Amino acid sequence: MPTQAKLADEFGVERGAVRQALRILQSEHLLTNASKGAPATVAPEPGRAATGPEAVPQPTMVTLGPRVAAAFAAPHVEIDALCLTSVSLTLAIGEPLRQIHAGRMKPAKVVVRVLLPSRDIPLAFPTPVEDASDDLDVQLRRRWLDQRNAQGQVLRHNLLALRSTHGIDVQVTFRALPFTPPVKLYLLNGTEALFAYYTLTRREVEIGQQRLELYDAPGIQSTLFAFEQGAGLRDTTFVEQSHVWFNALWETISSELTLTT
Prior knowledge:
Layout: H1 4-11, H2 15-27, E1 31-32, E2 41-42, E3 58-59, H3 60-71, E4 76-82, H4 87-92, H5 94-101, E5 109-117, E6 127-128, H6 134-166, E7 169-177, E8 183-188, E9 192-197, E10 201-207, E11 210-216, E12 223-228, H7 233-251, E13 255-256
Parallel strand pairs: 4-5, 5-7
Antiparallel strand pairs: 1-2, 3-12, 4-8, 6-11, 7-13, 8-9, 9-12, 10-11
Helix pairs in contact: 1-2, 2-6, 3-5
């Protein structure tokens, strides 16, 4: 990984936001050495998930990457995502980007739409288990917002870079939801829907100089269920209705989202 200083400069955020994002990724076993003086190192890639309608559901961090990589084999890639932050999608995009840079695939067009919670709403989670001071509430909200913005900026930057490096037509758009989504959804090329519940657990985090117990949902560990168009009436209907639902949110109650603090 680049140094913290380079990451902060590249994405226009404070060093503290970078350190916090790296600590979160290390806690999810996606980075190593994030707390040391040297730049963090990407953790070994987890085993790939089996695909197909009969595949056993696996955690998001195992399942999403291979399926997104398969979607990028199409000449026209379309990805819609509804989530709490874009961390899972940002990580999953890494594999197809490596294959594009290695010359093993080259889609002509990539269109990505992402729905994320608005910065202007009270989040249902993450939230303190017990009443916390107003200052802690503000810091907790800032922690989530920094992560939402940083991950979204990385996702957008990495995809838009394909324009100049490979001449690929890329469009990346974010919109804000007026609620905290209880589920996450990924729609791939109009033919596949990947769905997971945000399951709340109790965990401790360090906010400022204090330890705070939260109700939170580790999204990359959420079990991802795959539905494929053509794999039976139930799967086909789920994929179609998921597109209807996503488009309805996109075109009605969502609003413009800017990835800044």
